[in-house]
Amino acid sequence: MHPSSYNSMADNRYGKGVRITLLGSGVNLFLVFIKFTAGLVGNSQALMADAIHSLSDLFTDAFVLFGLHFGRKAPDETHHFGHARLETLVSSIIGIILLGVGGYMGFKAGWSIYFHNAYHPSWLAFSVAVVSIIFKEALYHYTIAIGRRIKSASVVANAWHHRSDALSSVAVALGIAGAKIRPGWYILDAFAALVVSLLIIGAGSEILWKALRELTDTAPMPDVQKRIRDCAADVEGVLDVHDLRARSSGGLFLMELHVVVDGGLTVTQGHRIAKEVEACLVQELGNVGEVIVHVDPALLEGGKEREILG
């Protein structure tokens, strides 16, 4: 890819990623304020825990902005394959933060349940939880759409952070509603906080696992590898596909494969087939960062492959 084209695509990707992340930061700041306030005034431990979750969103927003800024840089003398792994690193940091926040909130909730600490939340706390659900669910859908469009692993991870916040607010709202409907169920607020913590731990674990798969150059799932082989094999002139190697970086697939073609073809014809394979893979998978296609010649005798050279 030509450097100027790379920079143009990266700038467009960076701009969209920054805008949605800054929008999320503004929403998170607003929600932290109203959740803390309503949690204190409305006497809801679950809503206070939810406010801590929203506060962690602000920190992950900062990491995402860092990853977008440095991850968009074109390949250079010290990073021949670009800087996309920085976004993967940011995703892993987001996962670790979520695990830490979820663990802390779970401990606090478990402590309250064990010692039967009484919390009698108000309808104000319930209303704020509902507002949070609406804002964060809308933000999730908008952010994940942008993240997938610009192929940004960190933005997609941040979207799931928004979704976990929305789900935690659902648990908070249900816990508060139960405690208000039946005052003897006041402990439901603490149980809601515990559910919130488990949701956050689950989201953090999934994000961290995906990031670790990328950082350790884990191959794509078998179904993805099959799609790659089938796509290349369907290109006219390709006799066989072998030695596929694939990994992902920053949410994009990087792959290398060998295709066998008629050994009697010219170099130009073999190059054209390789380019068609590359175009097929980009169209089939969408999120492809780089494809290297090696052309292996085969001698044909009587229309059948006799020997692969090289």
Pattern of helices and strands: HHHHHHHEEHEE
- Which topology of the largest domain does CATH recognise? Alpha-lytic protease prodomain-like
Q: In CATH, what is the homologous superfamily of the largest domain?
A: Cation efflux protein transmembrane domain
Helix content: 55-70%
Strand percent estimate: 5-15%
- The biggest beta sheet, please? 4 strands, mixed
Write the layout of secondary structure elements.
Elements (H helix, E strand, L loop, with lengths): L2 H39 L3 H27 L13 H30 L8 H27 L3 H29 L6 H28 L6 H12 L6 E10 L2 E11 L4 H19 L2 E14 L2 E5 L2
Brief rundown of the structure:
The chain has 310 residues and is of the alpha+beta class. The protein has 2 domains: 3-215, Alpha-lytic protease prodomain-like (Up-down Bundle); 222-308, 2-Layer Sandwich (Alpha-Beta Plaits), CATH 3.30.70. It contains 8 helices and 4 strands.
Short descriptors:
four-stranded mixed β-sheet, 310 residues, Alpha-Beta Plaits, disordered N terminus, Alpha-lytic protease prodomain-like
